[in-house]
Amino acid sequence: MAEYLEGRENQIVTKGIDSHELVGGKPSVAGSVSQRACVFCGSRVVLYPIADALHLVHGPIGCASYTWDIRGALSSGPELHRSSFSTDLREKNIVFGGQDKLYQALHELIDKHHPKAAFVYSTCIVGVIGDDVQSVCKRVQKEKNIPVVAVMAEGFQGSKKDGYKIACDALFSLVGTDESMDVSPLSINILGDFNLAGELWMLEEYYKKMGIQILAPITGDGRVKKIQNAHRAALNVVQCSGSMIHLAKQMKEKYGIPFIKVSYFGIEDMSDALYEVAKFFKDDSVMDKARELVKDQLTTLIPALEPYKRALQGKKAAIYVGGAFKAISLVKALRLIGMKTVIAGTQTGNTEDYRLLKTICDDGCIMVDDSNPVELSEFVKQTGADLFIGGVKERPIAYKLGIGFCDHNHERKLALAGYDGMLNFAKEVYETVTSPVWQFVNRSTPFDNE
Ligand code: SF4
């Protein structure tokens, strides 16, 4: 076992060797350069894909650097979410307060862009100087007659996961405020798909073939009006439970909408996601259509995966992603293409998630919660992983260690959900793992000499 910071003992477990349980959901240990992002980042990840809303970051310009380029959620219509607006607080505003600047910025932007709603993100410095963001939002809401939602997401309050909850509260304030859309009795909301590379459109296609209406996608390709009508769907289907379970629970409590948790990644989980929805509606014709769809897809997909499986047989993968459901699906999908997972970690998993993850990992797999670059690098060297699957912060770790990398997070431009997504995933993994470039890389690292 590699060295790790004191206090992190029960956040790292090697299956088959350690007997203690992995405890997830703990605050980061002081002194650890955690891979977790801040509260503001978490709230923005969730709300940002709502394409016809104004997203205004109240704070210094640095916080607003997290733009559409990093989180490229696609829209089939309006694209206001692609513009990154900030009140750009300077020293003078920080000394004398930034409320006036916020009020003016909201008026100016709403007049210019006519959004259907506005989200105002409060960042660290605003929490420190104490601007009354909520009262400014309330005032502008009255004057402009659109929802203006204060997202009190000061980065220092906790971690990215706390930002998810704050974003869910912001969404919940919109749900139930409109009843003008046509709603089918076979309607669902999809919670927690962010349409980074058009995945939502694939899902729409599948559910349409089954006769199911997606009333509100929350929040990929999101629209304010659909979210306002979302309380009228028959079922909430939660894909990213880490980010959206809070909203699903709130909607169940207030509107009685049941929810199921699914994953759209990998053949098994994608098929289960369709069957679970069909089962819910207790309609034989819906189930028959789901079976037909899965059969059609697998007839072409299974033979297409074969060559990749042969080439990747026995290769080893490290996974470090945001949520545990994604990690679980990835372990299964990697197994399907002949690969073994040797490291499985997440930023936001809880103890229950890790229990589940452990049941599907092989003996020898290192499971880790809230890791940091030094630990991850050590684990990769120790296990001899050939591939790292992660996000923007893990990419340099993989490349510095001279191994393949697959982006399964914010920056990717390739759809990895659904049946087509599984084939894209196999191709991408194959291309990076077997790339001839790795033979020219020195796999020793600066840590080797320490
Ligand atoms: S931690 Fe604070 S200052 Fe840094 S990006 Fe997050 S909100 Fe902005």
Automatic annotation (TrEMBL):
Q: Does the keyword Hydrolase apply?
A: no
Which PANTHER family is this protein grouped with?
NITROGENASE IRON-MOLYBDENUM COFACTOR BIOSYNTHESIS PROTEIN NIFE (PTHR42956)
Q: Which GO terms describe its molecular function?
A: nitrogenase activity
Which NCBIfam families does the entry link to?
nifE
Q: What biological-process GO terms show up in the record? A: protein-containing complex assembly
The pathway is: Cofactor biosynthesis; Fe-Mo cofactor biosynthesis
What is its biological role?
This protein may play a role in the biosynthesis of the prosthetic group of nitrogenase (FeMo cofactor).
Protein name stated in the entry: Nitrogenase iron-molybdenum cofactor biosynthesis protein NifE
Write down the species. Paludibacter jiangxiensis
Q: Which residues form the Nitrogenase/oxidoreductase component domain?
A: 38-433
Q: Which family does it belong to?
A: Belongs to the NifD/NifK/NifE/NifN family.
Which of UniProt's keywords are assigned here? Nitrogen fixation
Q: Which residues form the signal peptide?
A: none
